[in-house]
Each structure stands twice: as C-alpha cells, then as structure tokens.
C-alpha cells in the first residue's frame, strides 16, 4: 500500500526517528545522500524537495545543475546501520521549473520508470519482473597502492587455498571448490544470514544465500522476482546492506567482476519475464522451444542483436571484461540455450510453470548502474518484439552444447561478446536508437556516459601493470 506523508510522520514518531536520510544515485550507480533532522520533514519536503547540484552526480552541465530531489515515501525504511535512529528514502530528481518542477530525464530512477511506461504504451506488457543474482567476495584483508614507485594490490581470505600452510585446521577450501560448501568451511554463514534478515526487514524477499564457486571467499544472495523499477531500488539497498554488514563482521565486500586472478568472477545474472493483464507473455506451447512464446524468442533476439552495445551499460568497467573469459562459467558467446551456462542467454529448465517461464541474461555484473542496466535490457527486448527478431533465424542458437568444447572451426562461426570496455563503448555509439526510442534514454546522457567511461579507459591504460613487469622488465 502506498505511503502518505502522514504515514511517514507516524513512522517517525513510532520509531523515535531523529534523522531522515535521502539517498540519491549518481551516474555510476553509487549512493549519495543528504540528511535532515526528522522534525524538519513535512508535506513541503515532499512537494518542494531537497536541492542539490546535479553536475557533481554526472548528470547536468554546471550552468544547469540546480535540481531538487523529491523523496518517494514508498521507499521509506529504517536504516539499520545508523546508531542515531534514521529513516532512509530514495526518490526522483526534478528540474526546477514553473509552475511545476519536471522530471530530470537523465536521472536513473526516471529512466527505468520511463522504460516501463514505454513498454505499456507499446501494448506489449504492463509489467516486467526481474531477478538479479548477486555474486560477491568477502575478504578478510584488502589493500591497493597506485604510486609512481609502488603499484599493486594484496587481498586475503583465511579459507582460501593459498593459506593451507598457515590456516589448515581442516577449513581451507581448494581452488574453485567453494560451491555450496558447508561449515566448518563456510565461515561467513552468520554474516550472510544477517544480510538476508536485514533485506527481509526492508521488504526484499530472498530465495536463498550460499557459497559460490571461488574458494577465496565468493558468495551469492538471490532475491525473489520483483517488478523492474522496484528491483532497481532493491538492488541499491541490497548492495548497501552487503557492504555495511560485511564491515560489521570485519570483512570487506566487493562486487568487482574479477578481483582474484584464476578464480571465478562476480556476475549479476538477470532473470526476466513479462506479464500482461496478469497473464505470462513468455509462456508458449509444448511444441515451442523451451515452451517459450514467440514474444519471448523475439525478446531474446533483441537482447542478442544489441548485446555489444548493451555491454557498455551492463558491464561498464574495464574489470568487467576480465570476467568474460572462457573457463569460468562466464559467457563469451552470443547465443541462447536451455540449462547452458556457456551461452549469454540461459533458459532455466527448472522454471516449469507458465507464470515463471523465463530466461536469464548472464553477462551483466554489479558494477553497473542498475537503473540503466535493467532499463536497457527492457528496451533491447522490446526492440526485438517490435521488429520480430528471431534468434534462431539469425543463427544465435539454440546452442544445447557446451560452447567452450566446440572445435576451433565451429568456434570461428560464433559471434562473441566484446573483450574490452572500449569495444562496448564503440558499439554503444553506433547502436543506441533502441535506447532513445520513446525518449527513454536521453541522447545527451549516453554521450556523457560514453565520454566519462572513455576517460576511465584512458586513465587505466596509462598505468603500468604489475604483470607487465613480469613479462617485460628483464627484456
């Protein structure tokens, strides 16, 4: 049920709230915040909003940077990490205008809402449900240094195979053998269980949590299917809870796609399905491949057609492409299949009921801005439905074989994901009309995003890498 201003005022009184915290999202998908004393919260707060400089968030030029943030009362939740009782809310950024303020088109939350409205306007569906899987590492120690005379990183997890000489005691996990491993090896069980309880307190229902493949402290938490825009908000809160709970337990959490060389990377696989008038759009007949409808196949076709440009938004870090390499159950090939983790789109065989018939996109990772990521996925899929892009006719599958085990001749016929962020950005420059359709993604935002990410690439490319010393120092 939607909350009113009076509901928030009642909550402030009942919970003894002293501060109200407004969490906003910058262009990179990171929380920023501003806080007011609880007694200052009123009806006018919801109408007039909180002023902020959008240029520092990466959205607007300095000359037009004064914006206001309007909180959404439905997102109100008591922040469990503040010793002073604090109520947290997210919301939308607005351009100051007369007589009424209007939404800032570049703001991530406004974009995901615009994508949902575009879907409804097309008549394809009224709701998109998604389920992102959150993979992350928990380290006991981590530090890095980038100086003229010192470049390097050191990290440690007590349970990792590399500590067998000092931390044996029957609790060290062999390399790549951590999947679903139980106590005494699973030494962060209580930490993750607390994360899940805090998520449930915030209204985010969870399917499960478990150790993931990498023995150096990799884990996963999976929420239940949720409405796309609400899951975008939930994604931010889930990451917030994971980071802060890890610190409480003396750990450091990271969603970095490839923090440990030679171990599995962190993905954020996104399951998706569409509903219209309460009926599943993706449910097909028994004789359809994987019992998926033609709309589902067209949706997959749109994702596969635009996958290179999508990668700029779903995998927007240089480190992202160190995860997307063969040998670690990470996708490298453009294709779809049932129960096949080597294809970029996997159709889970266990989703048997018609209202749960779906597929997952396996390339995204949690360095993305979730609002951009989820909205872009929807827009690519809708483009596939609009233009009836058949993935089978295009030669993208189904690949019901392990793509890593194909011969070199067979592999040469396949289309592959980008191997560098620069290549994904090149693709986004050339292929983004599907994103700007209906005015969902502003052209100015995409240009700004691309320029910002190109500068990141330039900066990182200029820094000598420790592995280069190993290769070239003595030549």
Task: Give a structural overview.
The protein is built from 15 helices and 21 strands. With 475 residues, it is an alpha+beta fold. The protein folds into three domains: 5-104, Roll (Ubiquitin-like (UB roll)), CATH 3.10.20; 115-131 and 273-475, Creatine Kinase, Chain A, domain 2, CATH 3.30.590; 134-266, Creatine Kinase, Chain A, domain 2 (2-Layer Sandwich), CATH 3.30.590.10. A hairpin with a 6-residue loop joins β7 (91-95) and β8 (102-103). α12 (421-430) runs antiparallel to α14. The termini are far apart.
What number of domains? 3
Question: What's the alpha carbon Rg, rounded to whole Å?
Answer: 23 Å
CATH fold type of the largest domain: Creatine Kinase, Chain A, domain 2
What proportion of the residues is helical, as a percent range?
A: 25-40%
Unreliable segments of 5+ consecutive residues:
none
Classify the secondary structure makeup into a structural class: alpha+beta
The H-level CATH homologous superfamily of the largest domain, spelled out, is Glutamine synthetase/guanido kinase, catalytic domain
The biggest beta sheet is recorded as: 7 strands, mixed
Q: Keywords for this structure?
A:
475 residues, alpha+beta, Ubiquitin-like (UB roll), Creatine Kinase, Chain A, domain 2, 3 domains, 7-stranded mixed sheet, 4-stranded mixed sheet, 32% helix, 22% strand
